[in-house]
Amino acid sequence: xxxKYFNVVFLGIxxxxxxxxxxxxxxxxxxxxxxxxxxxTVVIDAGHGGFDPGKVGINKALEKDINLSIAFKLKxxxxxxxxxxxxxxxxxxxxYQASDQDKKRADMKKRVSIINSSDPCMAISIHQxxxxxxxxxxxxxxxxxxxxxxxxxxxxxQERIKKTINDGNHRLAKSxxxxxxxxxTKCPLVIVECGFLSNRKEADLLCNEEYQGKMAWAxxxxxxxxLDTSGMQEVY
Length: 236
Known about the structure:
Layout: H1 2-21, H2 23-38, E1 41-46, H3 63-80, E2 84-87, H4 103-118, E3 122-129, E4 140-144, H5 148-164, E5 174-176, H6 180-184, E6 189-196, H7 200-206, H8 209-229
Parallel strand pairs: 1-2, 1-3, 3-6, 4-5
Antiparallel strand pairs: 4-6
Helix pairs in contact: 1-2, 3-8, 5-8
């Protein structure tokens, strides 16, 4: 009871201060109140699936399987922090019909449809990278070139991954204007390339359950930081 009373008083004070000092502040507090009522929603997209394995690792691991495993771990961490999670896929199947002539396009359109119809505060697409040169390694986060919020989210995630699990990774979050998901989704969306399956050491790590958990935890920390700095986290 005391906690609820404190919440009401605290939010009332914030609202009055915002009303006094800025129109932007009013919009911010209204959004916080709306999020507190409805909850924060994040969409997790496990890339590839079905006929499309994604990258095939130097150790023969399939990207689609690693993506899904990390996605489930991230889902668990986010839900433990009272965040509603929607998954674009929850098994090894792709998001297309057997009758679709262009299954890849149908799959991508379905992902976009799920994300946009869910009206999330963000979407995170989990992927793995590959490169002809085996020595190349390190996670990297991509965002749409015209999305300021996407850039902020990507930079936070990039730094969190670096500090939590990828020490020595000097890659920076990178903009992109051509990826289908980035171009066609309404919310801030980032693509997290968790590592290079073409690098033997990193490929083996990405197949390791413990390492996958650490990667998911790093992403979760980044999501929480973004929500906190953008004013979308619940007020307690």
